[in-house]
Amino acid sequence: MALSVSSFTLLVLFSCFATFLVCHGFPVHHNNPFHHRRHPRFASHNYRDALTKSILFFEGQRSGKLPSSQRITWRRDSGLTDGSAMHVDLVGGYYDAGDNVKFGFPMAFTTTMLSWSVLEFGGLMKGELQNAREAIRWATDYLLKATAHPDTIYVQVGDANKDHACWERPEDMDTPRSVYKVDKNSPGSEVAAETAAALAAASLVFRRCDPTYAKLLVRRAIRVFQFADKYRGAYSNGLKKYVCPFYCSYSGYEDELLWGAAWLHKATKNPTYLNYIQVNGQTLGAAQFDNTFGWDNKHVGARILLSKAFLVQKVQSLHDYKDHADNFICSLIQGAPFSSAQYTPGGLLFKMNDSNMQYVTSTSFLLLSYAKYLTYARKIVNCGVTAVTPKRLRNIAKKQVDYLLGDNPLKMSYMVGYGPRYPQRIHHRGSSLPSMAAHPAKIQCSSGFSVMNSQSPNPNILVGAIVGGPDEHDRFPDERSDYEQSEPATYMNAPLVGALAYLAHSFGQL
């Protein structure tokens, strides 16, 4: 049928508009198990406000040339020559925490978890979906630059020891912007496989709304994973003095290979990856009773993700992963026969003193995601004689998020800028020093320490930042020098984005 010029134009316009809606406006829903649930009447927290802030935080961590749409306006351009030491363009990406170094390993994990948050709960995010996509893209644009050369990944910009010897704004940085890479001679399977996971997960986020970009991401993910698997080795060995003790990989690289393969299987549907998982799963530690999930250890995340393939996509050969995932769930259930998790007297999941909140946010996300898959498949978890329903998993996750937002013995929100009481002295250079607008003159390397050691509140509010959180007795001193409890990090926020989207929707706030 021949179309007239005007009807052809209309057709093109309509298809562009449809793409725009998927990309910027109204998300497309598919068999969403949330739609039929009635909203509870009362929530003690404004999860929608917390969701907005949890995504906004990433703008405060941006490196590079900031866009005109930048909402955290006390930040300015920084790191504009990053990569020039090695004649590569490494401008952009995120500072991981309160310092001015770009660490590729946690940045990639942050990207994977932000993407997973959007893949599971993006359909509920309404107006925040576009902001979440932009937070992901800020990272993937950088990861594409870092992986531009075959069999090479640029995994860090900045000398961490020299950076930590200064307390200065990213806009004033004058410490060496040294560039570190992994390649065939000095491999880094954990950072490479995590980067592949990030690119693969993000490709699914952009598949409908920017198919060209999505294809670029997935092609790069395939290449990067091949490199990770072919040249096996830990980046903590070759780059030990630069990446340790900051982001040393203690759990080895096997977990990342399994995790990367799981994401590539999801993104490509290529049977090669399913076969890889079946052949290598056990040797890569699939069934390990290691119940920590964070930037270093991906075992639990891989188990939950692969159990989705079994429960939702009905990939029968992955049925063991449901049992592995159940083991993790049972470890969290107080009073269950295999329970191993510790909780503070106030009820917070407690793994370790240093940045404990990352385990709270990642575990909450996994609980809500797994509850979704179980609901879809009409399954429960059996912990010995204790039957654990999806509803119970949601309740545990909600309790953890509510504690973080202020339902705790100190009545303190551990998200900066949320609620009436939150940390005032976070361990974060840009937040603690006067902004460029307030103090245009350069602040020298060591002169910032007088501010770091002072009791004055930070002048710039890093809205949405999640800090390391209280100790095992629910205590929180709110001291800037206490980086274990007072430092924010991108990988603490990333999984919380998904959890908050789910809670905001389930309480009728979105």
From TrEMBL:
Active site per database record: 427, 478, 487
Name a single GO biological process: cellulose catabolic process
Class of this enzyme = hydrolase
Q: What protein does this entry describe?
A: Endoglucanase
Enzyme Commission number(s) from the entry:
3.2.1.4
Alphabetically, the GO molecular function entries are:
cellulase activity
Domain Glycoside hydrolase family: start-end pairs: 47-500
PANTHER family, A to Z: ENDO-1,4-BETA-GLUCANASE
Sorted alphabetically, the keyword list is: Carbohydrate metabolism, Cellulose degradation, Glycosidase, Hydrolase, Polysaccharide degradation, Signal
Read off the Pfam families from this record: Glyco_hydro_9 (PF00759)
What is the top-level taxon of the source organism? Answer: Eukaryota
Catalyses:
Endohydrolysis of (1->4)-beta-D-glucosidic linkages in cellulose, lichenin and cereal beta-D-glucans
Tell me which family the UniProt entry assigns to this protein: Belongs to the glycosyl hydrolase 9 (cellulase E) family.
Lineage runs: Eukaryota, Viridiplantae, Streptophyta, Embryophyta, Tracheophyta
Hey, what's the signal peptide range on this chain? 1-25
